Amino acid sequence: MSVLWILFLTGLLAALAGLWWPERAVRNLVRAGLLLALVWLPFVPEQSGFGGLFLMDGFARALTLVGVLAALLASLVGSGYLERTGMGAFEYHALLAFSTFGLAVMASSANLVVILVGLELLSLPLYALAALRYDPASEEAGLKYFLLGAVAAAVFFYGLVLHFGATGSFALGAVGKGPLFAVAVALLLAGLFFKAALTPFSWWAPDVYQGAPTPVTLFMATGVKAAAFAALARVAVGVGMGGIGGAFLALAVLLTVFFGNLAALAQGEAKRLLAYSSVAHAGYIALALFGPDPAPAVGYYLLAYALSTGLAFAVLAQVDGGRGVPFGEVRGLVRRSPMLAGMLLLALFSLAGLPPLVGFWGKYLAFVQAARGGQYGLLAFALLTAVVAAYYYLRLLAQAFFLEPEAKGGLEVRPLAALALGLVAFLVVALGVFPGAVYGFFNVGGVVP
Amino acid sequence: MDPLLEYLNALIYLGIAALIGVAMLLLGALLGPKRPGRTKLAAYESGNEPMGYAKRFPAHFYAVGMLFILFDVEVAFLWPYAVNAGKLGLAGFAAALLFTLVLLLGLFFEWRKGVMKWDR
Q1: Helix (H) and strand (E) counts for chain B?
Q2: Chain B positions in Cβ-Cβ contact with residue A139 (cut-off 8 Å)
């Protein structure tokens, strides 16, 4: 409860303070609020309130932590990009705080109505954020995200209504049967597949990720995915993976890992490539949902993924001049800034799942869950596509390391952004070497009461 | 004879007519010579060349529309409270007050941002 209050008041104060204070003060306020929430989270007791509508269990705590971490990173590495592209507006930070509040609401409930409210609280600021860099590409991203997001929310809402019709309850875990319940499950999952960008519903992701300002893309790829999977895990476990839900999810995973990885091979733009990579990773995370104990694997994968993708996008945000990051911009990055190139290397190797980095443990835990759930065919296919994934990560790295730079001169990275980048890079390595350091925090029980 | 079959002639006639039409367009497109020129490709008569960047979303009307929705929905939330105000007591009053206050801050924000100024 207290974390929700911190996030909510941070957003509210930031919005009001921005009317009088300079942007610099507002962004420090938001960072302080997010940092406070981050530090406070591990000490929040497990509790529930409002007759079960609000549920702060271990799973909610873990995924809120991932989301707040992503927001903090987006705020810290974003301001340089914002000023470079002439949109140093305080609204960026205020909207980020509001979106994080929605994320926390969405993660800490096992009630469909509250999840829907959280979904909207998360999404509405994001639509504005996606269109923040007032040019055609950014406007297209915002409008596309808004229209498809509205459709997805409507689909989820329809599923919610049918779920109530079939079981007489909005609470997850209610038992239902028959065709009505099957349709409800399919619609609920479809609505969340959209937010998590699983394939039949992921067509928006590349365009939106590419068009949106890079720090916003960072938050979309990490924080939003954490919230979407918090809800998806609860819904999937709540309705049961035995019937149509399991079949639907298996089909989505199959398509996602296949399409996401294959489409990424053909990209010539770094943000677009990482967008397809994030689609593929959504498939790997969803694999964990088949296991008997999905919560730790989902949580830890999301942490690993948020750190790695967050680091990659944070590097791109330093390179991006406002017109996206075609491969030409990354070319010869090692000459312009060895530090950024090294961090890109760490991030992409971690995303590819190479052992001494944190991404490996995420994949390992997810795949073990899939194996324990008996999904061997799906697992073998996912492993094969993970090998394909290494190719396009290496392709991007080859651009950064082995080619001559097109643009001259070094890159300026602000001290705070450099600090954030360094910390995340450190975590990517340290949590890969000592995965047990924070695993206990993610090793929580069930996801539905 | 099946009464529906009487219309078969008309159907065949329609099919042949459509075929001739499509075939002519297709043959014209495939075989016809194409020599586009600057004048030929220009917008015809009344059309103008588009200039500059079209601002497609006049945000002003939307902002006022959203303000309306905001307070419209607020009333929808206050109705259930108003009906049960007696039962909910002081705690309910505090909650409703807080809710309205947050919305009021939103209105204040919009006001300071100049949404109410029509002549911009």
Answers
A1: 4, 0
A2: 56-57
